[in-house]
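In practice, a research group might receive sequence data for several interacting partners and want a quick structural hypothesis before committing to experiments. The following worked case mirrors that situation: the sequences arrive first, and a predicted assembly follows.
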Amino acid sequence: MEYPSKLIEEAVAQVSKLPGIGKKTALRLVLHLVKEKEESTFALTEALNRLRAGIQFCKHCHNISDAEVCSICTSQKRDRSTVCVVENTNDVMAIENTSQYRGLYHVLGGVISPMNGIGPGELKIESLLDRLNHGQSEVKELILALSPTMEGDTTSFYIHRRVKDMPVKVSVIARGIPVGGDLEYADEITLGRSIVARTLFN
Amino acid sequence: MEYPSKLIEEAVAQVSKLPGIGKKTALRLVLHLVKEKEESTFALTEALNRLRAGIQFCKHCHNISDAEVCSICTSQKRDRSTVCVVENTNDVMAIENTSQYRGLYHVLGGVISPMNGIGPGELKIESLLDRLNHGQSEVKELILALSPTMEGDTTSFYIHRRVKDMPVKVSVIARGIPVGGDLEYADEITLGRSIVARTLFN
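A structural hypothesis for the assembly, expressed as C-alpha cells:
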C-alpha cells in the first residue's frame, strides 16, 4: 500500500506491531488521530509513556502495581493462607472480578513452553518457592489456576513436584462444562473430565 | 472492572477512545506494551507524536501531505483535467491502489450530514469551486466518488448544483454489482440500478 505521507507510514508501522492489529486497522486508527484534535493524540501518547516509565511490579506477587508492594498484598482484608498461582495480570483481574476469592496471588509471567524457549528459570517460580520456604510463611494452600493447555499443565506439574515436600496443600481450579454451556458442543475431554470429577448435588 | 494500577487505568481510558477499540481490547494492548521492552512503547508514542505535530494538508486538494503541496498535485505525470472528489484520505488511497486513475483529487473532509451538524461550510467545497473558477483552471471533468449513502448523495447533488453553470463535466462512479459478488445476495436497489445502468457487452 502507498501512503500519502512518510509520517503516516511510520505511525502505521508502529501501531501495526500491536497484537491483533493489522496494517488496515492501524491505518484507520492513525487517520482517526489525524482527524481529531492534536490534544487527543498527545493525551494518548502521554498516558502510554507515563505507564511504561512508571509501571512497577509487586515484589511479593509480581502483579502490576503502583507501589513496591501491590494493593492486594498490603490489604488487611485478604486471607494470607491461600496463594493463587496465575500466568499474568489479566488472570488476576479476571479472578478479582468474580469476587469469589479473598486470598493472595502469585503471577508467574507465563508458562513453561520449551517451543518458545521459556523454561522454569524465565518464570517467577523460585520466588514462589521463597514465599513458601520463608521462615514465618503463613501459606497453607496453593491454588494452581493456569491455562488448561499442554504448557499450563506442564507448569502445574512442575510446581507441584517442587512443593510436594513442603507443608502446603496444592489444588487446581475445577475443569468442566462452562456455566451456560451446551453439553452437545463441549469437547469430549472436558465432558469426560466433568463426569469423572462430578460433585454431589446440593 | 478494577485495575491493578492507576497508570493502567489511565492508559486503558485513552486507548479505548480509539474507534472500534473497547475496554477489553485496550487492556490487552496496554498489557502487551507493559510486557514488551520500554523502547517499543516509546517508538510507538514518538511516531504518533511526530505524526500529529508534523502532519500537513495539501493546500490544493487537502489530502494528507508531507509538504505544502502533496505529491499527487505536484506530479507531472498526472492528468490535470480531471478531479476526483472524495470524502477522505482513505478513499484517495483506495483509488490509488486500483492504478486505474491518473487525475487529481479533492478531499472534502466528510459529507453533508445535518444530523451530525455538518453543513457545506464545514467541508472543502468552496475551495473546490475556487479550483474550478480559477482563471487558468484546466479542470474539464469532476468525478464524484462519494459514499452511496443518503449523506453522500446529498453532497453529490449539492456540488452538482453549485457547478452546473461552470464549463465542467460532472460524472459519478458506477454503482452496480461488485465484481465477484453474488446476484442472489445483492440488495434490490443495487440490483435494480445495475439493470437500469447496464452497459454494452464488449
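Before designing any experiment, note the following. The two ends of chain A are 62 Å apart (CA to CA). The beta strands of chain A are 56-57, 64-65, 82-86, 104-107, 141-144, 169-172.
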